[in-house]
Every structure is written in C-alpha cells, then in structure tokens.
C-alpha cells in the first residue's frame, strides 16, 4: 500500500552565550577538561540559586524573530523531573507552560513552509560516556542554554526534513545566536515520523528518532523509518509509539524505550526563577538587531547570483555579508525596517543595480576560488576589506585585470599582511595589471610589426590567413610582458593590417 | 487523590529507588497524610483566582553574561561524589 509520511521535528540549539543559562561559568567547553566548567549551581548543591542569563533571553528573541515567530511578552520556567546521572538536580529547568517564543514559520528554499509551534528556553544536560560496567559523567554541558524549536507536522518527505534542518541551521548562524557547530553538538534533532494510508485524514502512530546531529542523518533516518513502518503496516501489524536511536554506521534505527507519558515528568513551576516579562519596546529593540537573513539575500541577489552558487554561499554568513557590504546593502540601513510585526518587509536600497557585476564576480570568486582553497576555513575568519574587494571588482570590470590575474590578486588579498594595502598597489606588485592604454599599446604593436620575424605573418594575414593573428597577438603579449589586454591588442592589430 | 502502594512503587521507579515493603507501607501512609493535609485547600473556592506561580512579586531577575571565577574548584566538587575516575563522576552503568 502507498503511505503518506508526516514528520515533525524538534531541534535543540545551543546558544552562543559566554556563560551558562543559570550560572556564571564558561559556556564554551570545547577542548576543555571534563568537569572544569562547572559551578556549585550546576552541581545542584543544596541551597544553590540559579540566576537567569539575560543574554540568553536576548538571543532567544533573535532566534524567534529569525523564524518569524511571535515573542511572548510573558514567559516562565518549569521543572521537568526525571532521574538520570546527566542531571544532578533530578529535573531540567525548561519552559513547559509559557515558552518565550510563540508561533511562526520557516520558509524552505524549495518553496515549502514549515510552521513553528513554539520554541522555549531550557538548560542542556551533562554528558555521559558509557563503559562496560560503569558510566562516566562530565557536567561541563549542564545548563548550557538551549532553545528547543518545535515544528508543526508540516513535513512530508525525507528531503524536506533535511532542508528544514539545514534552513534552521542557517537561520541560527545568520542571526548569530549559535555557533552552529554540528560536530560539537551545537544543534541536535529529534524527528517524529508517522505513516498513514494515502488519502487518509488520520495520522498514524509515530516513532521518534532522537539525537540526530547532521542533516544527512536526519534524511537517512526518515528514509529508514518510512521503509520500516511501511513494512510493518503492510504486514497488518501496528507501529509502536516509541523512542528510537539512530546509527550512522548501520544506517538503521533501533527501539530504545517506550515513551514515558508526559505526566511522569511531573512538571511544576520553577520557584527559583521569577517570570520573564518583556515590554513591547524591549522586544522591538532586540528584534531590530536581527541582521540580514537568508531569505533577504535570496530576495536581493536571487536574480544576480546563480541559484546553486547562492545556496552554497548561504552556508557562510560572513561571505554573504561581505558581498552585501561591497554591494552597498548595509545591514544598518536594512535593519531600520525591522519591527516586531510580521508584515514588516525589509526594503533594500536600489543603488545596488550598478553593483551587479561586483556581486557576480565576488560570488563566483567566493564559491569557486575561495571555498576550493585548502585554507578556506582559516580565510573565512579574516576576510579582505570591502573596499579592497570592491576595487578588485572595478579593476576586473575595466579589464585592467584578466580573469586569471583577478583570481591571483583575490587570493593575495587574503594574506593578513595585505590588509592595509590597496588592491591596485597589490596588483602592481604582482605585475598583473593589463595595459589598456591604447596609445601605449599602439607603440608596442608598432614595435612588433617593425620586427623582421613578423613580416611573413603580416603578409600571410593580408592574404587571408586568419589564424596567424594569434601568432601576432602572442608576439605583442610577449613584448608587453603579458600585461597587454589581448582583445585590445587584436583590435589594434586588425586595424593596422587592414 | 488516591495514594496507594502502586503510586509509591511508580514514584520509586521514576527515581530509581528500591524500597522495602515496610518502607512502601510507611511512605504510603506519609504521602496519604500529606495529600490529605494539603487537600484542605480544596474547600476554598478559587474560581476567580489566578494560579500563583510566584510568591514574591519579582520579574526579570537577570544577570550579566560575564564569567565569574567560582569559589569551588573541580577537585572540591568531585570530592563530594561517591566515586570519581579521570576527573569524571563514576556511576553504575545506566544504558
């Protein structure tokens, strides 16, 4: 039988705050010793008082606005009880009843739309490492601020599940709320999959695959679940509602435990943390800090940059911002249009049309030259100045730089020592500026035409041997030490030999 | 609310406690009494009263996002646990 899959995704995003959600210790535990970023609050020692990190509230507002969500004026925390060694408190502080982020939606690049049910702030759990007869607990990750983003069941294919997760990742890194380092677990996905016979209005029983940490595993896990559940339904059996784990190695999901019922978490209001009450003005001020987002770049550059190139560059906020800077689309100008209202459409300055060649050139250089470089990751952290890249584009447009020379100068610009030099002097030092001065070129052409070894070629050309023009252009190029613009040279030659 | 031996067993399993039959009986009694005592509040009509989430009228108690050196160090905190290994807390196998 044919089945229609319905997929909902919960995504945990670690926020890029300096300190944890409820304690004043270092939140960035990458490359740090186990249990070295831990305070008595994280240890849940008796009498410890958690204190809310204001920056986490601000980042949550930005994350919410990035997903076109309402920001709730009033939100508060609850305790979710469970017993496990990754949580010394015996409960997680989360927002069950009144989350900070309300309804919204995420547009997929393919044109689809996934509604956001809500998103809430909560603390992460510690990390367990399992051995044969024991487990070890590292509490560095305890109460790292998270927002958990809960989608509506609007996804119906493995591909859309992949695209939704990737788009969420982009929204979070463009908004600057998370480092988005998937390898280090900055974003983790739980995927609910259910199948119903095609045409049926009822949803089937769902299984949840937990803790996926790449877009590819989300896609593969959904594909696997659709196959697994189809087989069960075809055999006339029932899908069990359960939590399943995913193995990248085997490409399979396996049952973990039957889902605990919600009431078993015994949610209760968190008495230690007073509620968050946000004024309209505060929400508006914080929302206005949202920089240009992927959809803005698609809107602005979609007709200038080829689709595939743009989608590659949209994985790199730094590169898109640099292109926008060179194109004169400054984030500041852009942001004045942002408000809390959903209808607020950003207006983009129109003077960018003259910047079209620069946008085309830079997007191409970034996508096919920079990202192909071995040191590209290093380069991304220290990009050339906007003026340097703008000048590069201008020199290229005026044909002062050939496409090869443009690439050479472009890569040279990434040398940190070049940061205070202007592009023209760098190109001069490299000796790659093309001679376009027609007077100067003519002199070189005349010199070449006066040489005895070019006489035969000139005669052949006059007798209709078209291809010898290449030889003559080559001679001029040699004479100019490669700096002449070949098409200008050919033009002059043809005039002179006519 | 009906508190019986099964309620206690359920709660114990959620917290991974093992209880003797004696403890189960006495805890059932204790919890019954506590619930009974608190249930006196049910006599009040609270139809028009908003739920109380917060007894102090505080809001937005936020701190700055700055790292502060902690008084307790890792060694002191690890010393509070029953067993440690490689600077981590060692617990019985849980998965």
What does this structure look like?
The complex is a heterodimer of chains A (498) and B (95). Chain A has helices at 54-66, 158-175, 215-234, 280-287, 294-301, 307-313, 317-327, 331-335, 356-370, 376-380, 386-397, 403-412, 423-430, 438-449, 455-462, 469-479, 486-497; strands at 3-14, 52-53, 74-75, 78-81, 91-94, 104-107, 113-123, 127-130, 134-138, 145-151, 187-197, 206-212, 242-247, 252-258, 268-269, 276-277. By secondary structure, chain A is α+β, with helices and mostly antiparallel strands. Chain A has 3 domains: 3-277, no CATH class; 290-430, no CATH class; 438-497, Arc Repressor Mutant, subunit A. An 8-stranded mixed sheet of chain A has the order 6-7-10-1-11-12-13-14. In chain A, strands 5-4-15 form a 3-stranded antiparallel sheet, with no helix packed on it. In chain A, β12 (206-212), α3 (215-234) and β13 form a beta-alpha-beta unit. The longest helix of chain A is centred in the middle third of the chain and has 20 residues, at 215-234. The radius of gyration of chain A is 30 Å and the shape is elongated. The termini of chain A are far apart. Chain B has 95 residues and is α+β, with helices and mostly antiparallel strands. Chain B has a domain at 1-43: Glu-tRNAGln amidotransferase C subunit, N-terminal domain (Histone, subunit A, Orthogonal Bundle). Helix content of chain B is 36%, strand content 9%. Chain B has a two-stranded antiparallel sheet. Chain B is flat and about 55 Å long. The model of chain B has no long low-confidence stretch (mean pLDDT 91). At the A-B interface, β2, α1, β8, β9 and β16 of A face β1, α3 and β3 of B.
Name its key features.
heterodimer, A: 498 residues, alpha+beta, Arc Repressor Mutant, subunit A, 3 domains, three-stranded antiparallel sheet, 16 strands, B: alpha+beta, Histone, subunit A, two-stranded antiparallel ribbon
